[in-house]
Write a structure and sequence with these properties.
- The complex is a heterodimer.
- By secondary structure, chain A is α+β, with helices and mostly antiparallel strands.
- Helix content of chain A is 54%, strand content 14%.
- Chain A has 27 helices and 23 strands.
- In chain A, the strands form three sheets. In chain A, strands 1, 2, 3, 4, 5, 6, 7, 8, 9, 10, 11 and 12 form a twelve-stranded mixed sheet that branches.
- In chain A, strand 8 and strand 9 form a beta hairpin.
- Chain B is α+β, with helices and mostly antiparallel strands.
- Chain B is 62% helix and 17% strand.
- In chain B, a hairpin with a 5-residue loop joins strand 4 and strand 5.
- In chain B, helix 1 packs across helix 2, helix 1 crosses helix 3 and helix 1 crosses helix 4.
- The longest helix of chain B is centred in the last third of the chain and has 39 residues.
- Chain B is elongated.
- The chains are: A alpha+beta, B alpha+beta.
- Chains A and B meet through helix 1, helix 2 and helix 4 of A and helix 3 and strand 5 of B.
């Protein structure tokens, strides 16, 4: 079978040559036979005449040969394709609309697939990637521990079992890199054998080798080389200050290798050096991932057992309460681990559903368009059938036009995406790139082309097969009276078109409402009043700060204010406590602050006085405005004694506190759950355990100024970098807004595309209805109906479909909004604007789309119509 | 007057003719007719589609050469796959002929026995 297809491909590619060879072969036959006859005494012309008669009709033999190699079917298909192309060129508006309608959801689907494929399917550039494996631990509490402690890692890496070629460990380092300014850099601390096992060679200098553990330094990735040294050719030997330690560059890794993690690495450091520079005193943090390569045909189950046996022989290496029971081995695929891949799938599912919905709208729309077009070509189809074309031939002929549309749509989708991929990627992950994280590039590969072709063909079958089947059903029946027109009527053409229209309108309503809902949430989060100016605010880890460091930071000229608190604002939700008296209690968030906090945040008391250093640990509290308003008597809240309790029992709370002041509300935690939760402030000192965050307001928060601050922090503790890594609050805010902005933009784009597709469909359907009812409208007008009345009649039909679409789509959307509001704390999910104004907008736009062709019905000349139909 | 080739056997006959040595289409025709003692008459137009079918299946391979009468001709040569196909088709054909002959012979015997019994 393969040989046959190969031969057909060869013949098709060299078609002209093949045809020439057929002629030459048949001509040789003729001449050879003539020679034979001539040798018996027949003269040449007579011999040739007889040879021609014996050979028969050469054209028939040519066709026979073409059919024998399979060219005839191909020729027929090519001819259909040429006709379809000519036919589409004659209807450019129809062709452009149909291609665009299908291309838009295809492009969105491809983008989504590209995103998934980049992280979950595309594996790093490794040798023997088919034998790449990851280890995971299993504990009673967690069946998928992807990281191991130092001692577990050392035990598992020592002397690999026979089924393994080797194991390597990798640990993410997010320490600041200081050159002339501070940068966020992603580093990976790896075991000595990392590059040997992954097979990644050095592009410049050297990479780590397990037999050269004395070599001190970092290996850069090509991205790191570009980002940190602007691809300086003399990079070898230059130093990098990573986490307060000066480390020399010993090489650049080749193959554009970015590591085996989902976050692109800028540099690799030997694990032993990392431990030396930043020792982990208790070694109980699970930070190391372990991967490796198995030998061919190794059994993963027995390997897991052999590795698990090592853990039991390690007393004291497991964490209390989370003891590692055994080790599992999973095949490496993509940049994500199995559970992360599942999470990504879960996260992309809603988007995939929306894209499918859009495809459904497009398919329903195209079915309507195609049905209208094929109906208009009924005479053509009937003529073909009358001339002897089988039903299957006519069906294939019509379907070829749809397949051509599908192919063009796939091409357009790929072109759209190829042009928009880089800007889209930059826009989607701009904030991440600014923060030093290099996302994986989404590329269009052969898989994308294949997927586009498959989706386009699927779409073609969905929107093309039904109309082609309906149109050819009766046209091909020689006994059919009235042909296609009756056939279509019999099969409820109008009902089918109406149902398809309602279906796509309902789906559009749903898409638009979801888009408006997410847009509303995103808007609320973006416009949420923070209650403070995040510009110039930088947070550090207060738990690692000593008084010497704080003193050193205070002395920096760019530090205008400094305070400590219990959580980074905009990054973590504050703990909930119960506040009230014996009869009534309210749930408030609690924040410990030192006396400088309110000044740092620019907050003045609305009533009462703020904490003072002399207050020490007195049982006093300050309430936010929204918290005070929740109390029974908000006006007389000052001096009230409130009872505090914590359901978890983990917080060190005073039993009662006296309210000293009320301050304006302040945004805190995750803005999606409500930007200014009622908050109770308790006094603390910078050295108390609850106050783990140091907040600084800087007059200059440029990377250069941050580098200076970082260096001062590191120097103040004798080179210890822990806790000195600054985080700008503006970045924290952008990180919170990013996913919502993405989701909002994506769904808004899908919603508008869906609406546009539906409106195009409605426009087409109304136009088609007018053409079909031309005679009826002509009679109505001849009997005295005014133009306005005719337009109203046409519009009434369209309005009915729009209203039914809304009636189907709206309850589903409202139900979804109610479910989201019920099961999550997302604010704005049931925003009235989203749920009511959006359908109104859709109604208006859809009516406009229907009115445009409907007004043309008034231009019908009754006399002309009656004459032509007679 | 010769007999027409049994439908479906032309490809096998052509394959057998080619297995005797590379040959052009006209030569294949001559070989079949000569080997059958001029009993089988091959329809000339049907031969070429059969040869191209064999080539498409990979059972013969074609190349252009010069014929005895100094003309450019397309020569067909059997491939290893073609040899295998020929032996399997030939054995099937022989089995079929044998079985058919046995049936015909037994019918002839039964017929003569029945005639004897009537007498």
């Amino acid at each position: 079978m393969t040989a046959r297809w190969r031969h057909l491909w060869r013949v098709w590619r060299q078609r002209r040559r093949f045809e020439g060879e057929i002629d030459a072969e048949l001509n040789f036959h003729l001449q050879a036979r003539a020679d034979q006859l001539q040798s018996t005494g027949v003269d040449r012309p007579e011999a040739l005449r007889r040879a021609r008669i014996e050979l028969g009709m050469v054209n028939v033999h040519r066709d026979g040969i073409r059919a024998a190699v399979g060219l005839q079917g191909l020729d027929r298909w090519q001819s259909d394709l040429r006709q379809a192309w000519r036919s589409l060129r004659r209807s450019p508006v129809y062709a452009s609309v149909a291609v665009l309608v299908l291309a838009l959801p295809l492009a969105t689907g491809l983008l989504l697939h590209g995103l998934y494929a980049a992280y979950a399917l595309q594996s790093p550039a490794l040798d023997r990637v088919d034998r790449w494996v990851h280890l995971h631990g299993v504990s009673a509490a967690d069946p998928q521990l992807n990281r191991f402690t130092v001692s577990e890692t050392d035990a598992l890496l020592a002397q690999p079992p026979a089924a393994l070629e080797g194991l390597y460990s990798a640990r993410l380092l997010t320490l600041p890199i200081v050159t002339d300014r501070i940068r966020r850099g992603i580093g990976i601390a790896v075991s000595d054998n990392y590059f040997e096992l992954t097979g990644v060679p050095a592009l410049r200098g050297r990479v780590f080798r397990s037999d050269e553990s004395s070599v001190d330094g970092v290996v850069l990735s090509e991205r790191g080389w570009q980002r940190l040294f602007d691809r300086d050719e003399n990079v070898l030997g230059r130093t990098l200050s990573i986490g307060g330690h000066a480390v020399q560059v010993i090489g650049v890794a080749g193959r554009d290798f970015r590591g085996t993690q989902e976050v692109g690495a800028h540099y690799w450091l030997r694990e032993a050096d990392a431990r030396r520079y930043w020792p982990d005193p208790d070694g109980q943090q699970r930070t190391h991932t372990i991967s490796g390569f198995v030998v061919p045909a190794a059994g993963l189950e027995s390997l897991a057992q052999a590795l698990s046996a090592r853990l039991t022989a390690l007393p004291g290496t497991t964490l209390p309460g989370d003891a590692l029971q055994h080790v599992g081995v999973e095949t490496g695929r993509g940049y994500l681990r199995a559970d992360d891949r599942r999470e990504l799938q879960l996260a992309l599912t809603p988007a995939a559903i929306l894209v499918l919905l859009m495809l459904l709208i497009a398919a329903a729309n195209l079915t309507n368009l195609v049905l209208a077009r094929f109906s208009a070509r009924r005479h053509d189809v009937a003529l073909r059938c009358a001339l002897g074309a089988s039903r299957w031939r006519s069906f294939a002929h019509l379907l070829t036009e749809c397949a051509l549309l599908g192919g063009l749509a796939a091409l357009l989708a790929l072109l759209l995406l190829a042009g928009a991929l880089r800007p889209l990627h930059g826009w989607l992950f701009g904030v991440m790139a600014e923060m030093g994280l290099d996302p994986i590039e989404i590329t269009l590969g052969p898989t994308s082309v294949l997927l586009a072709a498959l989706l386009a063909m699927l779409g073609t079958l969905v929107f093309g097969a039904l109309p082609a089947w309906l149109v050819t059903r009766n046209a091909a029946d020689p006994r059919g009276r009235g042909g296609l027109q009756q056939g279509l009527k019999r099969h409820g053409r109008q009902r089918l078109q109406g149902t398809l229209m309602v279906l796509q309108l309902a789906a559009s309503v749903f898409l638009m409402v979801v888009a408006a809902m997410i847009g509303g949430v995103s808007r609320q989060v973006e416009q949420a009043p923070l209650g403070f100016d995040p510009e110039g605010l930088v947070s550090l880890d207060a738990a690692a700060m000593g008084s010497a460091r704080i003193q050193a930071l205070r002395q920096l000229p760019q530090v205008t204010a400094l305070a400590a608190t219990s959580a980074i604002p905009l990054m973590r939700n504050l703990p909930l406590i119960s506040v009230g008296d014996a009869t009534r209690s309210e749930a408030f968030r609690v924040r410990w602050v030192d006396p400088d906090w309110f000044e740092l945040m620019g907050q003045r008391p609305l009533a009462g006085r703020l904490f003072a250093p002399s207050d020490g640990n007195r049982p006093i509290a300050i309430l936010s405005q929204s918290a005070a308003q929740r109390l029974p008597s908000p006006q007389t809240v000052l001096g009230q004694r409130l009872q505090l309790s914590d359901a978890t029992g983990e917080l060190d709370l005073p039993a009662t506190v006296e309210v000293m002041a009320v301050v304006p509300d302040l945004a805190s935690g995750l803005l999606i759950g409500g930007h200014a939760p009622p908050t109770l402030y308790l006094p603390g000192r910078v050295d108390s355990p609850q106050l783990d965050t140091l907040l600084l307001r800087l007059s200059d928060s440029s990377p250069q100024a941050l580098a200076q601050m970082y260096q001062r922090c590191v120097d103040a503790s004798g080179g210890e970098a822990g806790g000195c890594q600054p985080l700008r609050l503006t970045e924290a805010l952008r990180l919170q807004q990013l996913p919502l902005r993405l989701a909002s933009s994506l769904t808004a784009a899908l919603g508008w595309i869906g609406l546009a597709i539906s409106c195009i469909g409605l426009h087409g359907l109304v136009s088609y209805t007018i053409v079909q009812r031309r005679r009826q409208i002509g009679i109505q007008m001849a009997l005295g109906a005014t133009a306005g009345r005719v337009v109203r009649t046409v519009l009434r039909g369209a309005l009915r479909q729009i209203l039914v679409g809304l009636a189907v789509g709206l309850p589903v959307s409202w139900l979804l909004a109610a479910l989201i509001a019920h099961y999550t704390s997302i604010v704005g999910a049931t925003d009235a604007r989203s749920l009511l104004l959006t359908p109104m907008l859709l109604l208006l736009v859809a009516l406009l789309a229907a009115w445009w062709p409907a007004r043309r019905s008034a231009d019908i000349e009754p006399a002309e119509v009656l004459r032509s139909e007679a | 007057m010769g007999l027409a080739v049994i439908p479906g056997t032309l490809e096998m006959l052509a394959l057998k003719a080619i297995s005797l040595g590379p040959e052009h289409g006209f030569g294949v025709l001559q070989r079949i007719q000569a080997c059958s003692g001029d009993v089988l008459q091959v329809e000339q137009g049907a031969l070429y589609p059969a040869l191209h079918r064999l080539e498409a299946q990979g059972w013969v391979e074609a190349s252009w050469g010069i014929s005895d009468n100094n003309r450019r001709a397309k020569y067909y040569a059997i491939t290893a796959a073609g040899q295998q196909r020929l032996s399997s088709e030939a054995s099937q054909w022989r089995g079929l002929v044998e079985a058919t002959s046995r049936v015909l012979d037994s019918l002839a015997e039964t017929g003569s026995m029945a005639t004897g019994a009537t007498r």
